[in-house]
Specification:
The protein is of the alpha+beta class. It contains 14 helices and eight strands. 48% of the residues lie in helices and 14% in strands. Helix 5 runs antiparallel to helix 9. The protein binds a DNA duplex through helix 5, helix 6, helix 9, helix 11 and helix 12.
Amino acid sequence: MSDIKVTEQNNKIILEGVHDFDPVHTFECGQCFRWNREQDGSYTGVAFSKVINLKKDGDIVIVDNCCLADFQSIWHDYFDFGRNYGIIKEALSQSDPVMEKAVRFGHGIRILNQDEWETIISFILSQNRSIPIIKQSIEAICRKYGSFIGTYRNREYYAFPTPEALAQRTAEELADCKAGYRAKYVVETAKAVLQAKDIGTYRQLDSGEIENRLLGFSGVGPKVANCIMLFSMKKTERFPVDVWIKRIMAFLYPDNCRNENSISKYAAEKYGQYGGFAQQYLFYYARENSIGR
DNA sequence: TTCCAGGAACGAG
DNA sequence: CTCGTTCCTGGA
């Protein structure tokens, strides 16, 4: 288990001894869409119908608007605090010099364990768009179809809508939420998820089986399926191949990484069980440094 | 103005 | 099955 010291005071949680965690790295590496930076450098976000604010201050992390019970039942797992990233980073750093740099650059990345349903819809909405637009679209949908949670720092927060709430909509109604042609996929997938009923148990299945099921949802292709498995089902070997990954892999390994399939194959051989972590370090490094553009 | 963005569906060959 | 085209729409 982790050696984090947790204390509670005044609706705040103080964490001491947290290693390998920086909110900037974790929230800006493309895995989540509902965390926003505040003026003071802290981050406020919504997940599991709760709003919290995180601020890293030297060696301690302050979690505001959070009680001890919620931290233990929700956030400890959400932030993957039970996992030792030191071992992963050391292993990846030895794979090659560029990965070593990428790991050092994004040393505070943790892979979040997000809600499956929210992750499915969020990544369906992500296709063919940049992150700021994706965030706008998701916020619009939450504001319109999600339940009101409360106000924090003078801003109103809404939960991610339930499958029932979205399944009742038509694609035309979702058009107001800047979903574009993806609106149809969202409604169809919401209905399919209601039929399936058990997406919360998918993570117990074999990765290949999960992938087959996810690819059956409208608007879910190989890249989105890998993101869902990695960011909400703990399938940490999954290596989503997006345009940034294509760019940096082609730049780093021009001989072995010509197309999507060769990249996936090469990553599987090179990073194995740590593929998902490797993808996040590379993505953040490539994007923040505009590598391959 | 024009072009493209952190992909997937679809039809043609 | 593999490949090329098309799909909203905001922002550079």
